[in-house]
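Write out the 3D structure for:
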Amino acid sequence: MVILSLEEDNDALLARSLFNTSSLSRISAHLDMRTRTVTAIALVAALLGAAPWCIYSASENRLLVGMTLVRNAPAIGAFCLDGSLPAYHLHRGFGAGADNWLLQFEGGGWCNDIPSCLERAETRRGSTRYMNKLEVFSGILSNNASLNPDFYNWNRVKLRYCDGASFAGDAKFDNGTSLLYFRGQKIWRAIILDLMPKGLGRARKALLSGCSAGGLASFLHCDNFAEYLPQNASVKCLSDAGFFLDERDISLNHTMRSFYDDLVSLQGVEKNLDKNCTSSLFYPTLCFFPQYTLKYINTPFFILNSAYDVYQFHHILVPPSADVHGHWNRCKLNPAACTDSQLEILQGFRNDMLATLRMFYQYSGRGGLFINSCFAHCQSELQETWLAVDSPKVNNKFKMH
């Protein structure tokens, strides 16, 4: 664990209430916007790689939840990259949370060309054959009331990620030798249809969330999620580390824009992007970036992100192609080793993220966000960054109501 204390002005921490929660979102909902300084906690930890049955690991007190394969998925053409069945992990709610549902998109990057997708298809990122059949449920998925007080008794679902396009593609590649299914959109639909008769169709409250590429999927599917649920249901969405910026890298190239453009084209994503967004832009593929589609989302949305997101730092701002001589290697490994000029560039990236979010912050009546200064990526799935016994206090309050 690395703890960094950063001095920020009041623009560094933008928060507004959306969820009545005790964890990160509750803290963000009640922050005094006049606060001049924040303590940023950067927690460097390995992400734990989520059915109707579960196992408690007594030695580590972990909840392990079994995998459910979506047997009816082939009926609508829903397959992982390699043709295997899509899957999810479900831990049932109880008591007051029995009719509430939390769906969490798994993250794990993307593939934007045939070689990278073929390679991905032979891993857990492209096939349920290689996935762990038991997933640890922690953080926002925990069933521990003291560690996840707002969602512990909800029906909690982890949607496994095996398409490489944030659950948004609809195409197929077949050259007679290799076969790849780009069916993320259909995987999303197949899982929803499988969950509807299990209680999702009667949900009173529902939250669609996700981390990283899964956080991006929350932006892409938020309104569609609400359409599946009863009209009187309270439906909201959360993206954790999914606000990927359309930003030039240090060589002034649009590396991430080019990557997404190839991805959208290869996997047939454009037809599944928000129509209001695609019709308003000269380059419709840009609607894969959350900053362009956010204003068209009607369902209440909450954004959890770091202004110094590690993934974006390493792959959008300073991708390997822009630093062929490795001048940023030490800075990437340890922010304390960054030079003054490198810190200035990082600060510029932070400022661009805040500027991009400013309209949403100022004019979203039902949305909210919590932007901190952690050198981290994903903060809702790990218990240490969601809610821990030594979590930081804001205004000397640990749980804020």
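The two ends are 28 Å apart (CA to CA).
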